[in-house]
Records
---
Amino acid sequence: MVPAVLVDKLQKNYGSVPAVKEISFKVQPGEIFGLLGPNGAGKTTTIRCICTLAKPDGGNLEVCGISVLDNPKGVRRQIGYVAQEVALDKILTGRELLELQANLYHIPSTQGKQRITELIELLGLVKYAEQKTGTYSGGLRRRLDLAAGLLHQPQVLILDEPSVGLDIESRQVVWDFLRQLQAQGTTILISSHYLEEIDALCDRLIIIDQGKVIAQGTPNELKEQIGGDRLTLRLKEFATVEEAEQATQALKTLPFIQEIITNQAQGNSLNLVVTPEPNSLTQIEKTLAEANFSIFSMTQSRPSLDDVYLAATGKTLMDAELAARGTRDLKSEQKQQMK
């Protein structure tokens, strides 16, 4: 079976800065496939290369068996692309904007009007279609942008952060619609930094960090690989590295603890992977007390995709997101000082 999307050792640099470092994955026809990672991980760059909007510095890209580099026009006929930033002409009504988009796709008038009516109904835009898009909420704008990307009935729909800025109701409308599209045979590629979105929608995914693939598989496979329940334990509000290491050595003597990861970004908290057994919490508390430590706080949960990311990088997705945001803010401040 020819993959709907093939990415083989993709590389992309911006000047001397590598944004994507030999990323590889395949998306099968009819699949919802996710790219999960914090902002700045390389997700949008990867998608822009697939969509012919950025030229790779290395690797091979194909959509439905068509080479992105050799036949970009052929690729664009196969894909629908919904970017992270919604760009709508505020003086046009929703219907007028879709009619303009249909003309750009050279869709015959009668067929275009029928397709527009179908999408307006499917995406719950009937009440708003004759209103100017400048009056739309963020959720309505995202739905309209999604309709524009689907007018020409693409084989592959590519979405960059589809839920950014959406309220819960609008997010659910988009999710339900994507499931309907998949049931009709559309292949969907989603980039997101929302764990729940990827977990709820995707058949398979890759996790990207600093331009590299650090894990891939189905959501359940990835969670099962790290096994056990999760315990997040804090010795103090802000423990030292030495205290975390001493506590780790003491806890390693307990046979039901499979792994201990220190999360330095969260006060050197200890993230434990444990095999559930009776009185395990009591044994942990006793062992720490014997090592002259008390428990400041402790939470228990089943494995999540965030645990997969933590196991691979030593930080949570939220930590990575905050670190990336801090780097962007610092660069912005430096640019302002240079002016």
---
Amino acid sequence: MRHETPTSLRVQKARTSLILDHPFFGSLLFRLKGRECRSIQTMATDGVSLFYNPDFVETLNAATLAGTLAHEVMHPALHHHVRRSGRDPKRWNVACDFAINPLLVDAGLSLPDGVLIDNRFRGMSAEQIYNLLESESESEAEQDSGKEDGDDEHGGEDSTGEESGDSDSNSPSTPVTEGGIGQVLDAPPPDEETSTIEEQARKWDVAVNQATTVARQAGKVPAGLHRILDGAAEAAVNWRELLRRLWSDTAPADYCWMRPNRRHVWAGLYLPGVVREGVGEIAIAVDCSGSVNGRQLRLFEAELRSILDGQRPERVHVLYFDSEVQKVETYSSGQPVHLDPVGGGGTEFGPCFDWLEEHGILPQTLVFLTDLYGSFPPSAPAYPVLWASTGSRKAPFGEVIPMQAA
């Protein structure tokens, strides 16, 4: 029989209090198996286990312990353990914490002092926050080009995807995040006991639906629950990395000895660095036909902001279209973007290409935000085209990027 320690009993008591006072979070917690683990500093989860350092638990009072447990279970509830997609683990943890903590505070839960909360990130997905944090980090590096690259901190962080075990020696260690109260690890790889990544995500979707039902029956649905659930579907495309790769061959660039390539300095090689003049004009075509609903349009706006925050193009032309281009708005770098769609008829993609040609605009990229239900022009343009699609149809040219929508 497993011996219950005083700390494990405190954790169990906190789980029970959440069931009574905050049933949405409490019922979700019973999907995680609690495991004491001193190799982490606070708490961590991979969507299967809840690892906790007993020394950290003892620093928390009953209310903050319950809030911290709710924080931890929201990582897999929002699929954070399966959405990292190669992003830097430490920055991903920070972004996920910024996304979760305001939701918990709004729900009336208590969190430890000094946790990561910033009102400018309210309503954003972890991916959007990650893009902003990465942009700010790059801007700081550009202002001080002589400073060593602070992003090369991957050493020792590869363990975020390790398979966890019952014993402390097999439990994962996690990167220390300033202000962090619980880390999110990558989902464990499938084996005889663990389902595939897709199946793990599906099971958490089922668990969230069940927890919502339990909370509704108890009359204790947390404030902002719909915003919590929508966060799992927003900004599912890593636009920053996709467009960086796409524009690597088209963005104007030159070599400069004043800013050497820091990747080779350690070996004593002083090579010129690549200086890019930035992304020029891009075009975003927003499908406003009757087949695109309001939820999808909000998702489109989240993706559009992700593009602007990640790449900082010189100019962005937003085309609202259905069977024709109904309205065009042009934004300069740094301007906030809010979609104000007009239209609602059938869908034809050709008029967007025609409008750009008529106005002498040759964009580096044209991104369609659409469900792909419409008629296409007979030939492809001379510039790259991306179709960010909420549907399952194919396009005759360009690259189709699946985009989740509720």
